């Protein structure tokens, strides 16, 4: 109980959270009804049935199929706003102070929804979270790596170019099915995004199902300064030394890795090796509505498995704050 209070009170930041992954079954069904969206054939009919499905996924793709079906209920700006606001209310109670939030425009634009509808809804929730809950946040737009390349390029260079240029999206990320879509495919798109706004921060999912070369190539070709997941980096000591030397942060997602069967047991999560090599990492929830826990449940799970002492937890939290993409004043406030 005492350590749980300690974990709750830590000034936590989250770097790996998909806003669409916060769609709880108890919001999904009412939104489907409100927006007259017919869920696909065979989709669970009740909150209970859907929660039953979410107990275990075969792999990343099995999860993604449900994630994209869920996205279909999001239509209007107020839906996106409500989704994000529900997230902020939940994590506010868990001691979250700063959030860097992914969103996937292509899971909506494919259905005829504009990038601005999505962005405006999310951005409103972010402003309100800052003023009413004291949670700072940044939005990171992700490219779906399993969409046709031309569409990915159009997203960055046309549909969302204004958001990048004006600094409304703070970062660019890359997500969805990893293995058949190596990072090198996106080299030119990352370069042109950075050209639109040299201040744009860059990250990419890598080394979740893909091997360590996905991590190395994301750094070398996409010029990312952070890696999402990155757990397969431990396949290469050379890579670990490089991540450590450059202080490249891995945004690790413990409960996600279990639900998607990246690991069978949390004990396999390579945190001790990362600590040994001095590779900075943060702990994150990824898609909490699907993976059975928000930020604090991820901290609890790691604590139950590894039993870190106060010193190690302090180091993890300080690294997390330092690796955040907020300005230096905000970092000082958080520490
Ligand atoms: N989209 C949402 N969550 C994801 C994950 N863990 N990996 C890849 N794409 C995702
Ligand atoms: Zn993710």
UniProtKB/TrEMBL annotation:
Cofactor: Zn(2+)
Enzyme class: hydrolase
Residues noted as binding Zn(2+) in the record, renumbered to the chain: 16, 18, 205, 286
Cofactor, how bound (note): Binds 1 zinc ion per subunit.
Keyword annotations from UniProtKB, A to Z: Cytoplasm, Hydrolase, Metal-binding, Nucleotide metabolism, Nucleus, Zinc
Main location: cytoplasm
Cellular compartments annotated: Cytoplasm; Nucleus
Residues the record lists as binding substrate: 287
This enzyme's EC code(s): 3.5.4.2
The Adenosine deaminase domain, residue ranges: 11-335
Gene Ontology CC: cytosol; nucleus
One Pfam family of this chain: A_deaminase
One function term, GO molecular function aspect: zinc ion binding
Active-site feature positions: 208 (proton donor)
Reaction catalyzed: adenine + H2O + H(+) = hypoxanthine + NH4(+)
Record-linked InterPro entries: A/AMP_deam_AS, A_deaminase_dom, ADE, Ado/ade_deaminase, Metal_Hydrolase
Function: Catalyzes the hydrolytic deamination of adenine to hypoxanthine. Plays an important role in the purine salvage pathway and in nitrogen catabolism.
Family: Belongs to the metallo-dependent hydrolases superfamily. Adenosine and AMP deaminases family. Adenine deaminase type 2 subfamily.
HAMAP family named among the record's database cross-references: Adenine_deaminase (MF_01962)
Name of this protein: Adenine deaminase
Species of the source: Hanseniaspora osmophila
Taxonomy of the source species: Eukaryota, Fungi, Dikarya, Ascomycota, Saccharomycotina
